[in-house]
Specification:
By secondary structure, the protein is of the alpha/beta class. It contains six helices and eleven strands. A nine-stranded mixed sheet has the order 3-2-1-4-5-6-10-8-11, sandwiched between helices.
Length: 221
């Protein structure tokens, strides 16, 4: 499966590129903003492409089987940049995928994403994510939205709790989130699902299968 990782230079994106390269059946491509970032991915053995979300990504999409949107504006940017990246750039990529016939789209979102979020701390982020998520649900693409709790840099345990609605918040190592991306790409039952994820006691494969509504079905390419 040939997969474009959008936001590859971020923490989750970098982990995902390395894990996907080592996994059977995947061929990741790292989308980066600057040529100087290529050194890191060359060391991982992952090919990279230089491009910007603002200009669209149509030229990079032919021949792909899936895209993963793990780009983010970052905690230090203002509300305008958050809307530009987490909302508008994500929506533009959905349109580019539809135009290029790339059906499979994995969105990294967050627990609490909602266009009407009243979060006192990260309202702009959750609203932007919520708008993008709603657009993806109506896009006609074969989407899966992964909504983790608060991300940490702790080593992954390989154990999670997952459901369409957990009814609680929690934390999740970025390492485990990237493993969840690979698992939903392997499981076609996850298409059309929003899956919330926090650390737990169940294996990633089993938890994703339960949240997706059944044992893993192979991807349709």
């Amino acid at each position: 499966m040939k997969v474009l990782i959008v936001g590859a230079n971020g923490k989750v994106g970098t982990l995902l590129c390395g894990q996907m390269w080592a996994a059977n059946g995947f061929s990741p491509i790292a989308l980066i903003r600057e040529a100087r970032q290529q050194t890191k991915f060359t060391a991982l053995g992952v090919p990279s492409a230089v491009g910007g979300l603002e200009k669209g990504l149509v030229e990079f999409l032919p021949g792909l089987d899936a895209v993963v949107f793990t780009a983010g504006s970052g905690a230090r940017t203002g509300p305008g940049k958050t809307i530009d990246v987490d909302q508008n750039a994500a929506i533009r990529l959905m349109d580019d995928c539809s135009q290029s016939s790339v059906r499979r789209f994995i969105m990294i979102s967050a627990i609490g994403s909602d266009p009407l979020s009243d979060s006192p701390r990260i309202q702009n982020y959750l609203r932007a994510k919520g708008v993008a998520d709603e657009r993806l649900r109506s896009s006609g693409l074969d989407y899966t939205i992964l909504a983790p709790g608060t991300l940490s840099n702790e080593p992954g345990s390989g154990k999670i709790q997952a459901a369409e609605s957990l009814g609680c918040h929690g934390t999740l190592p970025r390492e485990d989130l990237s493993r969840c991306v690979i698992e939903v790409l392997r499981n076609y039952n996850s298409v059309g699902k929003t899956i919330q994820i926090i650390s737990g006691q169940e294996s990633i494969k089993s938890a994703i299968a339960d949240a997706a509504g059944g044992a893993a079905l192979p991807p349709i390419l």
